Amino acid sequence: MPWVKRSLGILSLVLVTAIALCLHFYLPRHEVVHVTGVEVKRMDADGVISAENPADGPTRDVYFINTVSTDAKREVAVYRNEDTGWGFPWYFKFDSADLQAKAQDYSRDTNQFAVIRYYGWRFQIFSMFPNITDIKATTSNTEPFPVFVTLFFGGLLILVLAITLLVRRKLRARHRPMVPNQ
Q: Are 123 and 151 members of one domain?
């Protein structure tokens, strides 16, 4: 029987880790950056079209926004700016061209900070870029408080606690001895 408990523990750990990774990927994050440039690339299902990767199917234009962090490290980051449309994740983003125009305007002023909201990860080996969902000019280099993420995890915590209490009550009621009526 100990192997069953151990297996359930490992399975639970794997499940919680997978859920945490999905939430980290899809929930919005913010960053304050300097926009250094914008570009448009033609892509297909295999990535950016080039001499090494010719187009072999339907293609689309994808906007990219180049940034530099505002801290002392001055780390360079590239973000994808693509509509999510009606599909998953449900950001309902239809204004990538407008965001590209804003980013291009912010790139002209080297002293202009911009707050970007994005989701996703950057993996150079897979040519995978995080997707920007919003960009706004700011005068401060402090990141905004993540209100949505805080409310999301607060609601999730309340839901988990309510389910835990409900299950505990049901289990206690099941194991309580029956007292005959007198």
A: no
